[in-house]
Write a structure and sequence with these properties.
This protein starts with a helix and ends with a strand. By secondary structure, the protein is of the alpha/beta class. The protein is built from six helices and seven strands; from the N terminus they run H-E-H-E-H-E-H-E-H-E-H-E-E. A hairpin with a 2-residue loop joins strand 6 and strand 7. Helix content is about 40%, strand content about 25%. It has one domain (about 1-185): TIM Barrel (Alpha-Beta Barrel), CATH 3.20.20.330.
Amino acid sequence: MAAYYEQIRGLVDGGVDVLLIETIFDTLNAKAAIFAAKKFFRENPGKKKEVMISGTITDASGRTLSGQTLDAFYISIAHADPLSVGVNCALGAKEMRQHVEELSQIASCYVSAYPNAGLPNAMGEYEEEPVQTASFLNDWAKEGFVNIVGGCCGTTPDHIREIATTVRGVRPREVATKTRGLEETQSV
């Protein structure tokens, strides 16, 4: 927690707009980072930033490296009231789809997804072309699964450019929000 606190202070003092707690293979680490962020913001009320959280599903079982299901991961971090929660890394978009869909059904905040450019080949290189990655993310956007998209390992500026072009104009996922005890749906 102390190390996360120091990192958060440096990032906020450096001018970040948002904090991303990312690639969490152990939810206890995510919870330590969340605790550090809440402590920092409590002690520095004029410096509060939104927090985004993204975890890594490591295989087709839909579990994190420490064996937690996506649902359990979300429940474990939901108390942070994040701006968004998402999945990234470890898998290419083709393999991530079912997990992104699942997260979109349980999350009460924005959903992010930024997959690898496919799975690495025997030489550790990523071969998925920008148009392929963008096609997967466009599908997720059209299905209403995501609010924020991007790329992780193996993605290049060309991948990001193609993703942005492909999803431009697609209506983002609707998020059910609670306002003064009333539930309403908003499109963001």
